[in-house]
Please model this.
Amino acid sequence: MLYLRAAHIFPAIIVSMFLSCSLVVMSCSLVVNVFLKEEIMLYCRTLLLLAVAHSKSLQTGGSVCEKGCDCQGEFRFTNCSDMLFARVPGDIPPLTEHLDLSRNRLSLLPAGAFRGLRRLRVLLLSDNNISRVAGGAFASLEGLQRLDLSRNRLSALGEGFSLGLGSLKELQLGENRLTRLDGPLRLDGLQRLDLSANAIGSVGPRAFGLMTSLRRLYLRDNRLGFLGDGVFSMLRSLEVLHLEGNRIDGTEAGVFAPLTGLALLDLTRNRLTAVRFKAFLGIRSHSTRVLLAGNPWSCDCDLQRVFGKLRGVRRLSLDDYGDLSCAEPPELRGYRLAAVDAELCVAETVTVLVITVTVLITVAAAVFMAEKTRKRQMGERPSEDSSVVYQYQT
Model:
């Protein structure tokens, strides 16, 4: 505290000394020679420059730019990328709003790693070796809006990961080593989350439970399998959902029902062989584009009927229906579904007709035989009666 007071008083002392010097020069101008007068003025100007420089240092937080970093825009933009830093530099100007620490050798972010950078809005940490983020590492970054941790070695997100990130709008975690999402992470203001190209095989029912403002979710190129109900239950603001490049082979009927604002659903390059009509009918948004190409479809009459119904739902748009290809049965492998869909139910219809005709013929034959038997029996009864009468007469 004493240091801060002295730091603020020091410029005032220098300025007063400068004014005193000026008065001395003016009062002594008639006495001293010109040379002495110029020496005194030079001394006074030096004092003034020191005061101005010290005042400017106070405005920038009293810090200098870390060696190897480039600080611009009155220390609001600090670029420390490509400098082989193994730890977070200590001399980051406190007025920094945009900090780039990408392409370094950071491996651990300890608690309080960015203490004192309360004005930070953008933090870039991509392309490092970060394998662990301690709880509270971002605790002081209450104004941070964008955090990029892509292309690191993170295998899990600890409970304290989201501490201090209440204002975060965008979080990039693509190309790490995450295998599961349990959560929940308290990121109520988050609008864009990128989890692409990890190894995520399961998503807990509460993983996105505290991300009610999320609009864009990228889960492409992971290892997701069956999608159960509840995975997206709290994402009512979600508009874009990327699930392409996973191992999804089926879904529960109501898995997409909570996504009332969904505009794009990308399920390309998965392992879907069939679809459930109710799974997509549950999407209640005004208009939703659904992408399904690159799946190994089993082309049969059931698939044709489901897609026929889906294409009739006005609020759903199957933009890539013409690109869907058959993987089964073998005789249709490689064919476009759109080219054979009219024929998929023909064989079934013929089979039904054959069975129906067979049943009718069988029934008709049974009726004919029954009638023939009845007539035979009716024809035998009179002869028996005659025999009885003849015997009676005899």
Notes: The chain has six helices and 18 strands. The longest strand covers residues 288-291. Residues 143 and 167 are 6 Å apart (CA to CA).
